[in-house]
Description:
Strand order of the largest sheet of chain B: 1-2-3-5-4
Oligomer: heterodimer
Helix content of chain A: 25-40%
CATH architecture of the largest domain in chain A: 4-Layer Sandwich
CATH class of chain B: Alpha Beta
Shape of chain A: globular
Radius of gyration of chain B: 15 Å
Strand content of chain A: 15-25%
Distance between the termini of chain A: 45 Å
CATH topology of the largest domain in chain A: Metallo-beta-lactamase, Chain A
Structural class of chain B: alpha+beta
CATH architecture of chain B: 2-Layer Sandwich
Amino acid sequence: MEIGEWRRDGLLVLRPxxxxxxxxxxxxxxxxLVAARAGAADVIIDFVEVAYISSAGLRAxxxxxxxxxKERRIAVAALNSIVEEIFAISRFAEVIPVFDTVEAAIAARxxxxxxxxxxxxxRVHFWGSRGSLPTPLGVAGVRSKLHDALLAARGHELDTPxxxxxxxxxxxxxxxxxxxxxxxxxxxxxxxxxxFVVCDLGTGVREFGRALLAERGAARKHCFxxxxxxxxxxxxxxFPFFGPAYIPGNLIRIHGCHKxxxxxxxxxxxxxxxxxxxxxxxATIEFVELMPGRTYQVAGLSxxxxxxxxxxxxxxxxxxxxxxxxxxxxxxxxxxxxxxxSYPFVHFYRxxxxxxxxxxxxxxxxxxxxxxxxxxxxxxxxxxxxxxRVKRLVLFHHEPVFDDRMIEAVLGExxxxxxxxxxxxxxxxxxxxxxxxxxx
Amino acid sequence: MKASLGLRSDGAELGxxxxxxxxxxxxxxxxxxxxxxxxxxxxxxxxNAVNYGYPEGAAATGRIEIGLAVKKRRLEIxxxxxGRPFDPLSHAPPDLDRxxxxxxxxxxxxxxxxxxxxxxxxxxxxxxxxxxxxxxxxPPC
Lengths: 440, 141
């Protein structure tokens, strides 16, 4: 088979022509293995002239991806529809990243090579953890915390400020000394690099913007990469109050899989719903439509979207860098009856260091009154996390009707359920709260 | 209108198989994507039979027969060989859930084959493997 090629510093683009079948695959595989083993360049295979691929060709790609040195990348680009179908059936996008064009593959490679040193840990900060609607702590909530704290304080020696602090930190449960918070979904993944990565634009993003401006001032310009699970209110409503959008020179790239991405954000940012029109925002705002099942390189992370079960559609994102993986999967109704090894989400969550999971309802709610409301339960969360051998499970998107005590009770139940249903692999269960900071 | 072809159990016969399938696709005005799918199905069947059906090192004297027909937007594929008894439909599917680095290099051919057909039946009859496959052709767009 004919295989064209061209090079650029540290990059080799191979362009096979025709069919990659049992007759031609040996030539293809030999060429790939030579390039992969040499390790002198990242390899992009341009499929623009490939009519068809069979398992023999997939085998060659798999062999090359195993033979390459760890720090080298290999990617494919410009698949025609039949090759894409073969890739989808064999879930090959999970083996080798797929790009629409060679240019996109090169851009991703260049952006990854500018990425931060991967020695830095990934940090996950929860700016908003509540589902459906912002849920401020009210007078009754504060009073009940005071009440519980004072009751618990009886009989303790609290005659110095230090003793009071120690009592608060050690003796009071989180639901009394703190709060899970009331801002809607917004989670930041800090990569240690220059660019920001943010999941969802719930009201938590306002706090994120304020904290950033307070820390760095308005003069410094930033690039924000936003990934939207979907366009329901609670996941976008913070954006009109995101300070950095009002600063010229900032770049905000909003990624998502919905075709109506731009439309939804423009609509909430216009008369009569909001006084500032979207087009008058001083920051540069770009919309990037993603396709589920394709891997993208953003801010040094590999990002893989998956379609979820939710009214109007929602998407989960799997973020990876080297051997670290964070999955953001909210607003998905996992149906209990389909939970087994063949369930695609078991694979999607596989070996995640952190799984941020919408466990809004109790199981009783999920299988009765709130069936088809588009959310899942803590029990399903644990079962999925165990099946996928997730390290840490973060319960997220808390029901707005639940007060702090109730969320803490759900967490306690979930931890116990994880213990009794555990078969060898332990999943650590955490409840997200506004301000929670985790290192992966 | 049926078409049939006999091949030796020799990998080099794949070219003839492609020629036959392409001609069939032309004669029946199959869409390009359907032709490509047919080629994948036939290639996976053929290479599987040739590589695993016959004793290693033996002369390529096995006889493989292929019949194709289209009836009411249904593509019928009949594939038979005189290799050792083997039902590709009973073969365990590959574990695609394993993380990429742990996935084995091969094992995808039969998975592709099964994913691309809507119905498949195997029987062993008079020292031959017979596979009857049906694919519902996608409506032309």
